[in-house]
Predict the structure.
Amino acid sequence: MKRKNPLVMWGIALETEAAAFLEQAACSGCVLHNWDGRMPDNSALESDEPVLVWVSQRGWDAVSALPDEEMQFLHLVPRVLLLQQDVSPEYVERALDAGFTDILKAPFSEPRVREVFLRAAEMQNLYDDIIRMTREICLEREVLARKNDILEFIVTFLSRATESLDPVEILSNAREDLSMLLPLRALHAALWHPQQKDSLEAEVFLGVGEHTQAGLEWSQMLLKAAAKLSGVPVSGYTVEQLGQGGAEDAPAPGKVILLPLKMRDETLGCLALLTEDDCQLGKDQVQVLHSAMRHLALAVKNALLFREMRLQADHDGLTQLHNRRHFDTRLREELDRHGRYSMPLTLMMLDIDYFKQINDRFGHQAGDAVLRELASVLRETIRTTDYCARYGGEEFVAILPHTDEQQARVLAERLRKNIESRVFRHHGKTIQATVSIGLTGFKPGALTPRDELVREADAALYLAKANGRNVVCTFAGSCNEKVKKAQ
């Protein structure tokens, strides 16, 4: 299939200035038709044959409001969503689920725009190849069955590669789909972030047991391949299980196909395929296999980016603890779980004493350093089953599952002493800090609302402040021995 010259792009509800920039930045001689005020139809698609559609946030909102059948033809063209402002991770997930191949956030750079365009053109060339292959099938009846198998594989593989943002599910689907193309017995993989320069942390995905002899051999093979493909040594790795569905065999000479996952100049992973003996691939199968790997790389990169964005959205940037938003969700889940199984739970709230004086005396950077260090002390002190978050400002919270108030007081007192004895340093200056801690318990069978439990913990914290600070108090009015001696 021969494309028109010049290449045509579409814009959906773009500002005039943005449309001009995209037309100039994408490629020399490209033409951008901007649809603003009305939407294109299927006849316009056949006439223009656009290689890419740029959709503004306003344009997507308009398209989303239309019936699916009216805009279904747009799914045939790669689409890029242009964001002018920050959006929630849920908004990004919804956009990826809607089939956008990429998302750009303002300000847009010429190299990034051109990279997206070239990738879209590459994808469109693949679609053109599919059409050409379909026409050849009609002309060459003797290879009809084989071509149909390849076509079915491409359609299935491309659609399933983008239907999930979970790397395990993406790779499990790839294992099933690749069995349509070649006699596949097992699939294993390694993924990493290509931005790692001096060394890399890899994620190994195994279809066999991690601690079996076969699992160890596959892990070693994948880690060696990761070091070779990335050009840097592997400093550490984690292992994820792909579940059942593959052979338990170890790698054997002549049976393993190693395929890199690349996006232009970036290598972000590799697959290790275990095949049957004497697996001979035809030229068309090899071409399709490499094309499939490019699309799988795109799906994997989107999944890794989504996971990273979700992690950033759930954590406080300064302390790397969970943030208030994630805490609210987690507390609701824990209360439901503990209420269902009649188990005790304690909520702990702590606040740095005289934190404003620390900022005023040593500066806000010193205050930030104290917050970071205190978060480390909190992580070191609480148990692995506990959950901590930065509630806001200099306030922190911890959820203590399966813990009554008496047990929580022991932990809270240990935390208070650890912070009191810790020497905080910033640029050669020594800073002392203490915390006041409030506790309230959720008793089995009680119908305490989430907001009420937080209010009780806050009231207990206020009581600790009122009793001289650097103490632990409960909502019931009981404070630690330090307060009793002071009284």
